[in-house]
Specification:
By secondary structure, the chain is α+β, with helices and mostly antiparallel strands. It is 39% helix and 26% strand. The chain is built from 3 helices and 5 strands. A 5-stranded antiparallel sheet has the order 4-3-2-1-5, with helices on one face. The protein is rod-shaped and about 95 Å long. It starts with 12 loop residues before the first helix and ends with a helix.
Length: 111
């Protein structure tokens, strides 16, 4: 018997019974993936679908707000770009995807 080295004992069936099985050890990571999907991935996909629908529904005369904060009326539409009149005689060309919201009619008159 040594005071500096602990004795090693053979592990029998009682020690093997204490180890979790494959299914039990995978429950926590699978649960994390499910929580991640419902709280992060699913809402992002929903927002992307709504934004795509917004971009496809743009029409001439709509009053819009861009990601940069510009507000104006759509003068001309293209496949990838939109011309927006932000003031009398001032027309800006932006990407169609940069439109963040369609404002109610008459919003620009209030400003």
């Amino acid at each position: 018997m040594s005071f500096f080295i602990s004795e090693a004992f053979a592990e029998g069936p009682a020690a093997a019974a204490g180890q979790p099985g494959l299914l039990e050890s995978l429950i926590f990571p699978i649960g994390l993936v499910i929580i991640l999907y419902f709280f992060m991935i699913r809402p992002q996909i929903k927002r992307q679908k709504e934004h795509k629908q917004l971009i496809e529904s743009l029409g001439k005369g709509d009053e819009v707000q861009t990601d940069g904060g510009l507000m104006g009326r759509i003068v001309d539409l293209g496949d990838n770009f939109v011309n927006i009149e932000i003031a009398d005689g001032v027309v800006v060309k932006i990407r169609r995807g940069a439109v963040s919201a369609v404002m109610p009619k008459g919003t620009l008159k209030e400003l």
